[in-house]
Amino acid sequence: MKFLLLHGPNMNLLGERKPEVYGTVRYEQLNAVLVEYATSYGLELIIKQTNHEGELIDLLHKYATGEKADTSKAAAVIFNPGAYTHTSIALRDAVEACTVPVIEVHMSNIHGREGFRQKSVIAPVCMGQISGFGVLSYFLAIYALVKQFGVDAAR
Question: 57, 95, 99, 147: most buried by Cβ count inside 10 Å?
Fold first, then answer.
């Protein structure tokens, strides 16, 4: 089973940008431990990152829409839309078009930040939202999907 882990804008700067908010774990380190964690459940993570809204939409269309039986597709999406969370109706529509579950993930607690960051236009069309737990937010999303799909741990 494959899950798409889709990182939005500025995630490539993880560990460098605002470490007081996002921590010091680097982007590559985060992905490596998430792959290891997913593998322990016998899962494959397809990891993509882009700073471009249209490319995020294209990736959602490629991996998360259409025929569920298509083996090139992901069974679910873990999505950190970054700042597009608060502004992108186009991304919201792409998530709504997904034929698989999508979990919105944020490392910071968006509900405790600046007013303009407290509203997600994407969360209402997602299975759920996990925010505020740093890198653990991603682990919690994988675990939630594991439980949703009834995946047994390979460990």
Answer: 95
pLDDT digits (tens, 9 = 90+) for 75-118: 999 999 999 999 999 999 999 999 999 999 999 898 887 787 78
Looking at the domain 2-149, which fold is it? Answer: Rossmann fold (3.40.50)
User: For 16-44, what is each residue's pLDDT tens digit?
Assistant: 887 777 777 899 999 999 999 999 999 99
Which residues are catalytic, by number? 22, 106
Closest CA to 34 of 45, 42, 22: 45
pLDDT score, position 46: 97
